[in-house]
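Problem: given the chain below (73 residues), write out its structure.
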Amino acid sequence: MDVDNLQRRFLHAGRMLVTDGCVVIIHAANAKDALVGLFMSLTGVSLIMLSPVVNQFPRAAQVVAAVADAVLL
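Solution.
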């Protein structure tokens, strides 16, 4: 798998998780919903922060990208 493609997948998944997490936090009906939104946002930020080092750990990046795709789709 191409490293640039993995970086794009990390960035795309991270942006989607941060955005979705913010929407969940804004529309949270109770504390559990807000906690789920916070977890989604932090996961997205983690993916965005890991995207520059994808080329150092290509196999681990493939696993994380597959998990992110499964969660988002």
